[in-house]
Amino acid sequence: MLAAQSFLRRKGLMPYFERARKKWRGVITVNGKRHSALFETKREAKAWENQAKNTKPISKNGFLELADEYITFCDIRFVPKVVSQKKVALKKLYIFCGQNQDLSVQDVTADIATKFLAEMAAKFSASTSNAYRKDLKAFWNWMIKYKDIQVNPFSQTEKIPYTPRYIHTPSETDVLRIFACTSGQDRVMLRTYIETGFRKREVFRLKWDDIILDSGQIRVGDRKTGGKGMRYVWVRISDGLLKDLKWWYKHRTFPDSPYVFVNEYRSNSYGQPFLRRNGWILKLCRIAGVKEFNYHSLRRFVASMAADKFKQSLPTIQQLLRHSNLSTTEKYIRSIRDSQDEVANMFGDWVDGSDDEKPTSHVVRPK
């Protein structure tokens, strides 16, 4: 009798009394995993077992569980902004499917995916719907690779056609006007944007170790690798920008900081590298009295200047902007002509020709 009871306890088929704790332990096994809980009486333990057995087990392909695991996977591979976008897409699909906690990824068919994208386009925009499609397609591709899921319903859907919204690209005059409103670090920082076409955070991340002041090269990194980490390339810079960077290295406010550009203004981040600098370009636009634009508009300006003024070819501009796909570059510019030798100095000559003054310091120190 005792041997039979011991066998049933090991198999999780009956409650048993724990002498050390002087309580009854209820035990069940779900999907091969053992679960248990302690109770004062055998009746309570048995009732818990019966209730737990009648509860629908969580599917190993449950949408919520796999979505959480996918976000954890993405957290260490993508910047927070990208992870946040993925979370929003997953949440929108979950709400669309009725917020059913028992939702399985197999429940999401191509038909459901199509209807979801159509509703998102109607409620928000076609561009937003296509962004959700991209993120959810990536989620299912991850499950196909790691979770033995066979079908990606979002691969069977199509992008919704849309007309891209107009993005203002500043003129030469407007850029030169805001450039004339800067001095010190701001002047060097803005010139770096204008001449290199770097993305905002790429400039924020620059360290002095990324710059070879003797040969005029900058190492720039981005995360456009599909979650495979940072990708670095060396970029040549103009003699004028190199001269300004050497000046800033000599006169920088924080000699001990490894970062090229550091917050000089009194705030909680004083002496720290920029994580964001919201409103800086807009403020310069207002001071200069020009139509407002943002950081990314400067990147488009670089592409337009390279094509329209300097007559560079599409592949050359693609290399300048470090786009993986030529089609992305085509969205920025349309002019073509082949020549790569002039790229390093063309923006430097243009900036230097507009203003021969050297950067002047305007450091604001805390009291």
Walk me through what this model shows.
It is a single chain. The protein is mainly α and 367 residues long. The protein has three domains: 2-54, no CATH class; 63-156, Orthogonal Bundle (DNA polymerase, domain 1); 172-354, Intergrase catalytic core (hpI Integrase, Chain A, Orthogonal Bundle), CATH 1.10.443. The chain has 15 helices and six strands. The protein has a three-stranded antiparallel β-sheet, covered by helices on one side. A three-stranded antiparallel β-sheet has the order 4-5-6, with no helix packed on it. The chain is elongated. The protein starts with a helix and ends in a 13-residue tail after the last helix.
What is the total number of structural domains?
3
CATH class bucket of the largest domain? Mainly Alpha
Helix amount? 40-55%
At CATH level 2, the architecture of the largest domain is: Orthogonal Bundle
| Gap between N and C termini | 84 Å
**Structural class, from helix and strand content?**
mainly alpha
Give the uncertain stretches in residue-range form: 334-341, 361-367
Total of helices: 15
Number of strands: 6
- What fraction of residues sit in β-strands? 5-15%
Largest sheet: 3 strands, antiparallel
Instruction: Give the ordered list of helices and strands.
Output: HEEEHHHHHHHHEEEHHHHHH
Q: From the alpha-carbon coordinates, what is the Rg to the nearest angstrom?
A: 30 Å
The fourth-level CATH homologous superfamily of the largest domain is Intergrase catalytic core
